[in-house]
Hints:
The protein is an alpha/beta fold. The strands form three sheets. The chain has a seven-stranded parallel beta sheet, sandwiched between helices. β14, α21 (508-518) and β15 (522-525) form a beta-alpha-beta unit.
Amino acid sequence: MSxxxxxxxxxxxxxxxxxxxxxxxxxxxxxxxxxxxxxxxxVIVTEAxxxxxxxxxYLVPALLSGGKVIxxxxxxxxxxxxxxxxxxxxxxxxxxxxxxxLLKGRANYVCHHHLANTQADGRMTTREDVRYLQMxxxxxxxxxxxxxxxxxxxxxxxxxxxxVTSTRENCLGSNCEHFDKCFVMRARKxxxxxxxxxxxxxxxxxxxxxxxxxxAELLPKCNTVIFDEAHQLPETASLFFGESxxxxxxxxxxxDSRMEGIAGARDFAALPEAALALEKxxxxxxxxxxxxxxxxTHKDINGDSAFTSALDNACAKLSALFVLLESQAERSEGLxxxxxxxxxxAKTISRxxxxxxxxxxxxxxxxxxxxxLHATPLSIAEIFRKQVTETSRAWVFTSATLSVNGxxxxxxxxxxxxxxxxxxxxxxxxxxxxxxxYVPQNMPNPNTREYTxxxxxxxxxxxxxxxxxxxxxxxxxxxxxxxxxxxREEFKARGLDYPVLLQGEGSRTELLDRFRKLGNAVLVASQxxxxxxxxxxxxxxxxxIDRLPFSPPDDPVLAARIDxxxxxxxxxxxxxxxxxxxxxxxxxxxxxxxxxxxRGVLMICDPRLVEKPYGxxxxxxxxxxxxxxxxxxxxAFFARATVETV
Length: 646
């Protein structure tokens, strides 16, 4: 028996420290495959269904390898779970003397320089921010980490955080007067010294972008890179391999220029005036579009004279600020930094406007308070392949959702990983008996106005049969809000007291805690609840998905990629859009069965799943649950569950 077989055996070292540990063939096979990949410094793409135990399957060979390992995951919450729970468990089981560091993006650490400037400026928009600033200052004096997650009394959403943390653009680096006690540098040093470093995808690709610009790397050199939640990589990498600049960045630059002027050039009155002029120009640019949020192509604003004029004005104010900063830059490191940022932002906007490279798509993203100009590569395959092949190390990509019916062609093609080994392990759960896939009959076309009302009408008898205990997942915020209003009206009219929770009425963590405790709630949500959510037991017995999650065809990047593929004589819908929808749908469906004792109904309301030729390809990619179009079978499913628990 090999060392790794001993670890995962029923009497092995993991069983000794993990309560209710069970030996699983898929987990052992996955761990063995990853161990070979690490030893040979190859590339492997692995899909592991829910319950396989993929986290331990990659942690055990990683900690046994003896080399330096970077583990990148999708979110800060998953980072914390790995660092606080999973790695300590495996380290204890293996008795492995490995050191571990947690590294987050710089916006997670208090910056002494910007904290001091904010205190000196004294301009806070609310009394709450004044109080929060005092709390952060006190925290900065006593903390060892400087990690804002350790200061729970100041909400993560508090606006003051942006003023007391640094960004890549406004960090002074080794020229900062507080460099010796910098929390970011302290965290980086710990990462450099550690055997295992836990990061997130955004930080990993920010580091890649810095290296490509010739800047010293943030992350240490390593022998192995492991991407958990690897299905998120194509979208994240696309953002970092492109260029962007936002009105929020311009506002931040204006604020920093004004504050650095107060600190280092108080006698130069023209500087704060120019900074305020840039801030106004940036805000005016955002106000040229009425939409609260959305995405626009460059062509969408071609004839928009108000937008063009406002962008011209912002560029002019940026140039004027640069001239003044150029004259004062030698007076402080902070002023020099603002001068450099002004120059870089002006160049980025200029490149965006000129658009000489047709391998990039130019587009605009609208947020509530800001507007962002993007230039995104149409394909990242060549760029990412270069990152993988230019160094001799092992690369491991893993997720519960990477393939389309066992085929990894789409995913590997997006990242340029055509030569990678691919392997898939199905979930060990008994989906045929634990779950039922229900596609209701007589649903209208998903593109009709009455569709969301029809979804709610079809879901109501299912919610009655399940006695609440459901997620209603929607592909748009508009549909989510409409559905929530309809569900609440129906429950009130029928005298039903099932609590209805809505995404946005509290943080995701708060809503999930309430959902679990209530035991009979209905949670109506959109994209952020489609993945990374784990509710085990009876509290979640139904997942309703309103429609197949095809990305909107008017999305600028998607539209450009579809156009390119079709011009090449390829079928963009079948090659790109369907596989993307399958991977997203598998994530949403994966919320239902999280444990060996879970039982539930997956209700997909979209009639295209059974009426369109491509529908079979989609449902065959889902776990092998029984399928029905009859409501009576759903009601019988829950009736059996009630009998079995009596």
